[in-house]
Amino acid sequence: MIRGGYDPLVWLGIALIAIGIALVMVPYLAERMPGLEGISPLLLYVYRRGDFYLATSPVLIAASLIALLAFLLARRA
């Protein structure tokens, strides 16, 4: 036992339980969510082909690429 706190495995167990509850709730919440047709394509882009759906955010992709580029350039300097 670690002094002044819980064992790290206790926190891991709590995190796994919380993730499990969240994964169980996702389909329930997805059924009751309003349609996403009114959202700008810059914020949420949904690619549909038959039964396949891919949802992504071009703004988040661009921000991630900029952050990755800044990280790589900072490492070289």
Description:
The structure is a single chain. The chain is α+β, with helices and mostly antiparallel strands and 77 residues long. The chain folds into 2 domains: 1-33; 36-77. Helices cover 57% and strands 13% of the residues. It is built from 2 helices and 2 strands. The protein has helices at 8-32, 58-76, and strands spanning 45-49, 52-56. The chain has a two-stranded antiparallel sheet. The longest helix has 25 residues, at 8-32. The N and C termini lie far apart (43 Å). The relative contact order is 0.06.
Could you tell me the radius of gyration in angstroms?
20 Å
**Overall residue-averaged pLDDT value:** 85
Which runs of at least 5 residues are low in confidence (pLDDT < 50)?
Answer: none
Portion in strands: 5-15%
SSE topology string: HEEH
Overall structural class, as computed from helix and strand content, comes to alpha+beta
Counted by DSSP, the helix tally is 2
Number of strands: 2
**What can be said about the biggest beta sheet?**
2 strands, antiparallel
What is the overall silhouette? flat
Q: Could you give the distance between the termini? A: 43 Å
Domains counted in the coordinates: how many?
A: 2
Major sheet strand order: 1-2
Instruction: Give helix % range.
Output: 55-70%
